[in-house]
Amino acid sequence: MKSQLFATGEYRKIEQIVVDFLNANQGYLSSNTIKSTRAVGDAIQDILSENFQTILADERAIYSTGFARRAMADLAFEDSDGFYYVVDVKTHRHDTKFNMPNLTSVERLARFYEDDKNYFVLLFVTYEVADTQVNVKHARFIPIEFLDWDCLTLGALGWGQIQIANSNRITIRSGYPRKSWMLELCDNLLEFYPKEISKIGQRIEHFKKVRIFWENRSDE
To answer: 63, 22, 23: which is closest to 45 by C-alpha?
Structure first.
């Protein structure tokens, strides 16, 4: 059994509700807040977290917030079929030229996806600002496996971080099978790790030379 939220077009309704909700609820930004892209993103995340149960409009859903700073999600809910969704809110200011946000750890995602009823969901909100008003252009509410690997990259933090290569270019493959996506993740990592090993070898050699330099220095 698959999640009916993503097996049908139901998730697209949530995307439109998010856009309409944010555009209808203004006044949460000040003249100081609007100057900071990070502050605007935090404000949007907060208002969505506080009101997401209303946005879902599903009285059967079990909803929760209050995650630790380093947790996988900003909010989560369980539907009436027992599927569990953790949602990470990502905001993007439309007039910025480049943005490369981290999504999640490859190791954490691999463990989370051992259970077919778990979904790691990205809620992308793209917006513009005028004075102290936010104009949300569009929203995307999708599980990570709907993201094409041509718009993703891997970063060298811990086991590896899945990142958006450029927030101005996101490619979505709606309905893409999780198994196929996870196999692509593994293939990408099997190319990524040897390159990292090579970089580490170069760094080791570099600091061997740095050590020799300092061995030959006087203590004065």
So the answer is: 22
Residue 163 has pLDDT above 80, yes or no: yes
The model's pLDDT over 64-79, given as tens digits with 9 standing for 90+, comes to 766 544 466 788 898 8
Structure tokens at 143: 């599980």
Statement: residue 166 has pLDDT above 90: no
Q: At 108, which amino acid appears?
A: R
User: Distance between CA 200 and CA 77 in Å, rounded?
Assistant: 41
In angstroms, the Cα distances linking 81 to 2, 5, 143, 151 are: 9, 10, 17, 31
| Residues β-bridged to residue 89 | 123
List the chain domain ranges: 4-215
Torsions phi, psi for 126 (to 5 deg) = -105, 130
Arithmetic mean of pLDDT over the chain: 88
List CB contacts of 105: < 8 A, sequence separation 6 or more: 157, 158, 159, 160, 161, 162
The Cα 168–Cα 86 span in angstroms is 24
Residue 30 has pLDDT above 60, yes or no: yes
Q: Taking the chain, what is the end-to-end CA distance rounded to the nearest angstrom?
A: 72
Residue 205, token pair as written in the block: 């050699």
What is the band of 202 on the pLDDT scale with cuts at 50, 70, 90? Answer: very high
Closest residue by Cα to residue 157 from 204, 215, 103, 79? 103
Fold type of domain 4-215: ECO RV Endonuclease; Chain A (3.40.600)
